[in-house]
């Protein structure tokens, strides 16, 4: 079965020429038109390729039928949590009388993630088509695309695409004569990572500071934008909806592996020969195949050391680890890091998450104290400050790891660092708290000896002196 699917993918790639050809093990569904020879973002180009056919098909279906197909497809959200898309749509209260909103999350600010931008830049109508079908399914007449502030070009491309689609009646009033009305608006983001968290995003869209809301009760499907039912989905997730309609839910579910269906975009960055984006069938490739076959292996003279598999919030995995996993019949099996199939459930069972698909690779030239400090600096900078454990804790963690990289930390600092992380986890309004504490917990647990080697036994008694630390760091030989 695996072999057959790959051949179909290869067949598809042969019919299209690319400026940067996909790897034969890729299966291009969402990225079919990315880097395609002669392709541009205009509606004429999209229509020449059969674009908006699925919208026409969907307009002949009942909204409930569309949701049913999406449920059958097994599609799971590609924004981070991997929550089933069709199920999320059914959470809109059945007796709802308020307006329903659809929001496309195009904030894409998870470090290591760079897929949604390519969809929007090169194939904006694929997203608009997926959005209009989804809006119809959930009964939304107003939809927003929340675009990351740092993507100004993406916002312009989308605005142009919306005008083109409206001129052809693919959106606006009475879409294709169906009686369904929908408008899509582009909203430029506020330039903060937390605006990607769905309730922070909603607050920002309402014109407020993006303080996330507490769940429960503020699950967007019930109490979202303007306290009305709101479906928030990632760019890639919404694009998949179009393909579910084309293929049918059952057929789509044959891509990938059970419970982990379809294709997904992986963004590989860091210490590999061939970094970039790859679209694979979920769970059909292993970590080894991704890093060696698709990414070309480690750089000359280096060895792979660790991988963050799903954006910076995912726990780090060591390349020499082995995991004991439970089989459905209750027995257990051993799995090495290299044999992890790239699906949601197995990566979670190995103690991390598939998250946003941002695979960050580190080789043996990387010092873990530097990696830890880099992550801590990001989270300390991005905490929205609403809750004390996250606001204070993320800054403390950054200050302690500053000492680690400057050679000023005492061995006991690792214990303090760990204890701060444990006091953030589970104590905050939103999942950012966990996201900031997981890298710390995992890196300390897995690389304790290496971090300890960067501490100084005599540092405990010294108060931290930032100027001396900065000077020492400056004087250190380049690594
Ligand atoms: C701190 C934080 C940042 C997030 N950033 C993004 C983001 O940039 N893009 C995104 O799609 N989802 C992001 N999410 C997940 C969203 O809250 C939400 O779950 C997602 O947009 C739902 O879409 P999906 O079901 O299609 O995955 C973030 C979550 C957290 C906790
Ligand atoms: S956990 Fe952090 S980012 Fe989330 S609401 Fe609290 S302070 Fe803000």
Proportion in helices:
40-55%
Give the number of DSSP strands: 13
* Sheet with the most strands: spatial strand order: 8-7-13-9-10
Shape: globular
Whole-number tally of structural domains: 3
| Low-pLDDT segments, ≥5 res | 1-8
The CATH H-level superfamily of the largest domain is: NADH-ubiquinone oxidoreductase 51kDa subunit
Rg calc: 23 Å
Considering the chains and any ligands shown, give keywords for the structure.
479 residues; binds flavin mononucleotide; de novo design (two linked rop proteins); Ubiquitin-like (UB roll); alpha/beta; five-stranded mixed β-sheet; Rossmann fold; 18 helices; 3 domains; four-stranded parallel β-sheet
Compact description:
This protein has helices at 2-15, 43-48, 53-59, 63-73, 85-89, 116-122, 124-138, 152-167, 198-205, 235-247, 249-252, 287-294, 344-349, 368-382, 388-406, 411-424, 432-453, 466-475; strands at 100-106, 140-147, 183-188, 230-234, 256-257, 260-261, 263-270, 276-281, 304-308, 317-318, 322-326, 332-336, 358-363. The protein is of the alpha/beta class. It folds into three domains: 40-252, NADH-ubiquinone oxidoreductase 51kDa subunit (Rossmann fold, 3-Layer(aba) Sandwich), CATH 3.40.50.11540; 258-363, Ubiquitin-like (UB roll) (Roll), CATH 3.10.20; 368-475, de novo design (two linked rop proteins), CATH 1.20.1440.230.
């Amino acid at each position: 079965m695996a072999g057959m699917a790959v051949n179909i993918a290869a067949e598809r790639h042969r019919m299209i020429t690319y400026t940067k050809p996909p790897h034969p093990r890729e299966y291009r569904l969402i990225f079919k038109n990315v880097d395609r020879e002669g392709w541009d973002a205009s509606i004429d180009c999209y229509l020449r390729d059969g674009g908006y056919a699925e919208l026409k098909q969907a307009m002949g279906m009942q909204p409930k039928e569309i949701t049913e197909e999406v449920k059958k497809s097994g599609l799971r959200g590609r924004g981070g949590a991997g929550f089933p898309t069709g199920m999320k749509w059914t959470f809109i209260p059945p007796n709802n009388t308020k307006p329903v909103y659809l929001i496309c999350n195009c904030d894409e600010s998870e470090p290591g993630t760079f897929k949604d931008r390519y969809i929007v830049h090169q194939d904006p109508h694929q997203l608009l088509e997926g959005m209009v079908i989804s809006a119809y399914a959930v009964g939304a007449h107003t939809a927003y695309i929340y675009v990351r502030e740092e993507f100004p070009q993406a916002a312009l491309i989308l605005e142009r695409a919306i005008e083109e689609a409206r001129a052809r009646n693919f959106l606006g009033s009475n879409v294709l004569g169906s009686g369904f009305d929908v408008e899509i608006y582009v909203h430029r983001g506020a330039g903060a990572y937390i605006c990607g968290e769905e309730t922070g995003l909603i607050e920002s869209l309402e014109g407020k500071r993006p303080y996330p809301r507490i769940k429960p009760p503020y699950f967007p499907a019930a109490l979202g934008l303007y306290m009305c039912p709101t479906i928030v989905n990632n760019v890639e997730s919404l694009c998949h909806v179009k393909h579910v309609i084309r293929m049918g839910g059952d057929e789509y579910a044959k891509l990938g592996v059970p419970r982990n269906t379809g294709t997904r975009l992986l963004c590989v960055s860091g210490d590999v020969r061939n970094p970039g984006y790859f679209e694979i069938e979920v769970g059909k490739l292993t970590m080894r195949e991704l890093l060696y076959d698709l990414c070309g292996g480690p750089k000359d003279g280096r060895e792979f050391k660790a991988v963050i598999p799903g954006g910076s919030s995912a726990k780090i995995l060591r390349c020499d680890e082995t995991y004991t996993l439970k089989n459905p019949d209750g027995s257990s099996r051993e799995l090495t890091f290299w044999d992890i199939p790239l699906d949601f459930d197995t990566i979670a069972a190995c103690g991390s998450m598939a998250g946003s698909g941002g695979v960050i690779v580190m080789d043996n030239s990387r010092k873990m104290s530097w990696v830890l400090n880099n992550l801590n600096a990001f989270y300390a900078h991005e905490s929205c400050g609403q809750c004390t454990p996250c606001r204070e804790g993320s800054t403390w963690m950054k200050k302690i790891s500053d000492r680690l990289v400057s050679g000023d930390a005492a061995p006991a600092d690792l214990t303090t660092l760990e204890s701060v992380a444990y006091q953030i986890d589970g104590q905050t309004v939103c999942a950012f708290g966990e996201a900031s504490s997981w890298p710390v917990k995992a890196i300390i647990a897995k690389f304790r000896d290496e971090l300890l080697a960067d501490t100084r036994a005599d540092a405990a008694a010294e108060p931290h002196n930032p100027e001396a630390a900065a000077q020492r760091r400056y004087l250190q030989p380049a690594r």
